């Protein structure tokens, strides 16, 4: 039998808007019992507010001397003062005339304390000049002053590049049957070697460009070459995971270094120690003992292919660039990372160390950047963007840096200022496609007077400075940067 039903009062449904209004009304009743009435005015706060507004917005012109109202018909007294004013001035020199021109141009302007020129009383001028009125800005903060001064000084202190003659192509060497991917010069500067996708290494005479020797042994394209300064050895690495040591007296392979799990993309020799560094698609830079063929370190830390490496005699002795957009400095004693630079946004495919200065440059599709060593401080970007994938770069002792792109562009830069003084475009061999106008490797010879490029049209091109050029035929068109972009 069902129990008795209890009477439940019906709840009136209320909207969210009505509940919000009720809550608002309760809050107002609690905290502000007099609705619709403004707070009583406070004369002291009003006075402070008005005085601050006058000081902030009109402080620069409050202390200006009153100008004569009758400018059309000046009084005889004003005419006499104007007539007597030049007599009080001594003969202006070149610096004074420049200051007078500056003041005349800024007659109606207000100049802050950071830009106010210093006036001396040696010329008989009083402290307040009668030609132009220069007033200081009261209340201007030191931070704004220093920032404006910094913005003024950066372009003026930017180093101006020296004039350099343009480079021209004077020789085309053909002999390879595939893309030419790598190059290295002999320390004696009598020959250089190139590695190609046709799986051969060819040795050429520097002076004549004639073929001297062809070496075979790799089964894939050869991406890295290096010639030892201390031994008669040449080292090669390629997509076949192999790193080989060639004896140039017997012209054969005497050692192989096994350990890479995929293709090897870059190769470098330490300048003072007998060790070899190779980086590849397995995201590792491996350090090898040349004599014993043993692996000293596996420098692991990159997240993608290690595609560029160079070495130095002092720390950081190994610097690597990768497709993961980072540059890493390595401690060769322990095989650990010393520093990671994350300034680039694209793959760092090429790096070059300046032969004299203690700094290096790295190239990516977004920009070319300069860094200081050994701390890795960012110096500046190059002042132009090549806007292509940059495969190779090199710099000589004169400070001429060359960068080669995937679209066949070869740009020449002034190292000190970052100015791009020449933009050359390679010409493909007759019978080749326009899409084969790509440059994969380049290198200066030991003297720095020749530049050799390895290209996708299976040729090797040699470049030198144009001896007939002068500043009149090829003027220097340089504009200092207005803003320095860090990224």
UniProtKB/TrEMBL annotation:
It holds the Pfam family WD40. Belongs to the WD repeat PRL1/PRL2 family. InterPro entries: Prp46/PLRG1-like, WD40/YVTN_repeat-like_dom_sf, WD40_PAC1, WD40_repeat_CS, WD40_repeat_dom_sf, WD40_rpt. Signal peptide: none annotated. Residues 63-84, 137-148 have a biased composition (Polar residues). Keywords: Repeat, WD repeat. Residues 62-99, 111-148 are annotated as: Disordered. GO terms for cellular component: catalytic step 2 spliceosome; Prp19 complex. GO terms for biological process: mRNA splicing, via spliceosome. It comes from Nelumbo nucifera (Sacred lotus). CDD domains: WD40. This is Protein pleiotropic regulatory locus 1-like. WD repeats lie at residues 173-214, 215-256, 257-298, 299-340. The keyword Membrane does not apply.
């Amino acid at each position: 039998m069902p129990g008795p039903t209890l009477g439940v009062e019906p709840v009136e449904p209320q909207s969210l808007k009505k509940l919000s209004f009720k809550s608002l009304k309760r809050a107002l009743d609690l905290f502000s019992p007099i609705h619709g009435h403004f707070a009583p005015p406070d004369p002291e706060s009003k006075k402070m507010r008005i005085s601050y507004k006058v000081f902030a917005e009109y402080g620069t012109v409050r202390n200006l001397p009153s100008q004569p109202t009758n400018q059309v018909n000046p009084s005889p007294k004003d005419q006499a003062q104007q007539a007597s004013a030049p007599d009080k001035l001594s003969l202006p020199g070149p610096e004074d005339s420049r200051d007078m021109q500056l003041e005349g141009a800024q007659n109606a302007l207000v100049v802050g304390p950071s830009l106010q020129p210093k006036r001396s009383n040696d010329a008989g001028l009083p402290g307040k000049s009668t030609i132009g009125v220069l007033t200081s800005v009261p209340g201007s903060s030191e931070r704004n002053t220093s920032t404006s001064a910094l913005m003024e000084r950066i372009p003026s202190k930017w180093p101006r590049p020296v004039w350099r003659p343009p480079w021209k192509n004077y020789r085309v060497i053909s002999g390879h049957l595939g893309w030419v991917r790598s190059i290295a010069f002999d320390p004696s500067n009598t020959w250089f070697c190139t590695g190609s996708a046709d799986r051969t290494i060819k040795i050429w005479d520097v002076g004549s460009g004639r073929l001297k020797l062809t070496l075979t042994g790799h089964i894939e394209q050869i991406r890295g070459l290096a010639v030892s300064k201390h031994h008669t050895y040449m080292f090669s690495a390629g997509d076949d995971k192999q790193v080989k040591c060639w004896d140039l007296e017997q012209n054969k392979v005497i050692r192989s270094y096994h350990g890479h799990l995929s293709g090897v993309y870059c190769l470098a020799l330490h300048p003072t120690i007998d060790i070899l560094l190779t980086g590849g698609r397995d995201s590792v830079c491996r350090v090898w003992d040349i004599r014993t063929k043993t692996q000293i370190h596996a420098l692991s830390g990159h997240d993608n292919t290690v595609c560029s490496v160079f070495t130095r005699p002092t720390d950081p002795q190994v610097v690597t660039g990768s497709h993961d957009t980072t540059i890493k400095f390595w401690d060769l004693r322990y095989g650990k990372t010393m520093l990671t630079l994350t300034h680039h946004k694209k793959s760092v495919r090429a790096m070059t160390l300046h032969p004299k200065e203690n700094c290096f440059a790295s190239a990516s599709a977004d920009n070319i950047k300069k860094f200081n060593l050994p701390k890795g401080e960012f110096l500046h970007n190059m002042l132009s963007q090549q806007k292509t994938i940059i495969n190779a770069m090199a710099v000589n002792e004169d400070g001429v840096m060359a960068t080669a792109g995937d679209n066949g562009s070869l740009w020449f830069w002034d190292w000190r200022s970052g100015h791009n003084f020449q933009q050359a475009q390679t010409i493909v061999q007759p019978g080749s496609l326009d899409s084969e106008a790509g440059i994969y490797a380049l290198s200066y010879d030991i003297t720095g007077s020749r530049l050799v490029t390895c290209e996708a049209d299976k040729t090797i091109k040699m470049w030198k400075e144009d001896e007939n050029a002068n500043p009149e035929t090829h003027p220097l068109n340089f504009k200092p940067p207005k803003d320095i972009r860090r990224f």
